[in-house]
Amino acid sequence: MSRRLHTTDLGCIACDALTDLGAGKEGWLVDNPDLLISLDTHSVAFANRSLILILHWSSSNNGGPDPDKNRVVKIRPDLSPIESEYISAVEWLVFDDEVSSVLAVGTSCGYLLIYSLHGILIHKQIVNTGKILKLRVRGTKRDLTEDTSSEEVCVVMPGVIARFEGSDIQNMLQRWFQGTDSQSWNDSLDKIDLENSESSFTRLPYQLWNVSKYGPCSDAAITGVMPPPLMEIQSSQHYYCAVTIGDDAVISAFRLSEDKSRSLLGAILSKVVPATFSTIASFSKLIWRSEQKPTKKPEVNTQPFAGASPLTCLKDHPRKGEKLTLSPNGTLAAITDSLGRILLLDTQALVVVRLWKGYRDAHCLFMEMLVNKDTAASPSAYYGYSKSDYCLCLAIHAPRKGIVEVWQMRTGPRLLTMPCPRGSKILQPTYRFNSEMTTSSSHIPLEVFFLNGDSSQISVLKH
Fold this sequence. Notes:
Blueprint: E1 7-12, H1 28-31, E2 36-39, E3 43-47, E4 52-59, E5 65-75, E6 87-95, E7 101-107, E8 111-115, E9 121-126, E10 134-140, E11 150-157, E12 160-165, H2 166-181, H3 194-198, E13 207-210, E14 217-226, E15 239-246, E16 251-257, H4 264-288, E17 308-314, E18 321-326, E19 332-337, E20 342-346, E21 351-356, E22 363-370, E23 390-398, E24 403-408, E25 414-419, E26 424-427, E27 432-433, E28 449-452, E29 457-461
Parallel strand pairs: 6-27
Antiparallel strand pairs: 1-29, 2-3, 3-4, 4-5, 6-7, 7-8, 8-9, 10-11, 11-12, 12-13, 14-15, 15-16, 16-17, 18-19, 19-20, 20-21, 22-23, 23-24, 24-25, 26-28, 28-29
């Protein structure tokens, strides 16, 4: 069966700048473990250990990228040579308002960097000591089935999960863009002093949890809000469910608490100790009449961990968890392991509901396809359908088999099998932040894109 029956070619993203990342050699896109890729609607970000390339494209006559109008931005982050710091994660942050898109970058020393489309450093902040393994952007939009919306950026580190509120990041970016709108900085991008701008960075609030009870994780995700534990007084704080995978435990789950105190004693101490210390300090000043100021600045300590309670774990030596992919609403997770299996996990019941075997080095992405519908020839025909017309599916790229399969969730049949050339990757645009209510008539389905590194062709899987 011809591959062209199932995909629509969007164009070619070839450019001379990609040679800095190894382009031109066969298999450069898949053979380099340090090469990172993140896809946006009109941009692709490539990164190795020290260099980031942002490739923008303009739409051609067929709606795809026009190689003659491609625009490239090179970024070389200021990394610590003493710590041998390098780029370890990249992900787009896409907004529907004037903020537009920015690129989030994680480093091996635990720093979160945010760059504009022009390569300007907007924000820099330490999350925790350790390597940032992955940056996850996820949200549930308010619609007819969801009363509230939740948008977040999740930072995954070995044994550690951090969560940033999407609204906090958006507000920070809005202030930054409003400040730059009054300046003609487009003509002097190369003259910006990044060292001076770092002093003006405001610290973004975030939550931090230690999830290393079953060993350091290789990947993790916050799946959503969950109810509080039994026999606990109801409060206004939220509890989140986190799923981790790793070498020691293939799958483990935790209940994450917003409160840093795990017990009643901890809550009492957190209230009483600061007040007691303040009283003693004031009393001491009255006695000693001490007006001396500290000669040293207080050290900036790492943010303390909030409460993380283990829920369950699956240990099956020598099986190791490798990759985790979360469904849009967070109720399903596809997990690949070192034995070539794919586990479909129900993140609410915390049980495996489906298993595939014989898929070594597989990569999975959730997508939406029209089921029992006559698809139109136009690539934009799906804009006339509502959310209920689509079915959640799992696309499985098996590079050793050279195929991509699409399976209907949760227990449905295989809907599609198509060849996938060697040297290709399947990609998906990142979640788009939008707190406004969405209607069923305006639903835009999840899509899967193909990037062939050897031919530089990008295409999209038809619905």
